[in-house]
């Protein structure tokens, strides 16, 4: 995972910390924020908390971000 991107959990972690459908974002300090839990996992706990999880880039987030950037660019060139 890369800082600055949002991901979605497609397979829950072994210990149940992350569930299918959770939206997660890595932070620069090594922690991971989870939108649904309204909290974060400390960097020292990330390895155990993500074990077994499958996480993919949130394509809906990417689409929204692209659309927002395209709209901003249009205002610069108009």
Describe the structure.
The chain is α+β, with helices and mostly antiparallel strands. The protein has one domain. 31% of the residues lie in helices and 24% in strands. It contains 2 helices and 5 strands. It has a 5-stranded antiparallel β-sheet with strand order 4-3-2-1-5. A hairpin with a 5-residue loop joins β2 and β3. It starts with 6 loop residues before the first strand and ends with a helix. The model has no long low-confidence stretch (mean pLDDT 93).
Poorly predicted sequence stretches spanning 5 or more consecutive residues: none
State the secondary-structure class: alpha+beta
Q: How much of the sequence is in beta strands? A: 15-25%
Summed over residues and divided by their number, the pLDDT gives a mean of 93
Largest sheet: 5 strands, antiparallel
Element pattern in H and E: EEEEHEH
Shape: elongated
Helical content (DSSP H or I, runs of 4+)? 25-40%
Order of strands in the sheet with most strands: 4-3-2-1-5
Radius of gyration from the alpha-carbon trace, in angstroms: 15 Å
First-last Cα distance = 36 Å
Counted up, domains total: 1
How many strands in all?
5
How many helical stretches?
A: 2
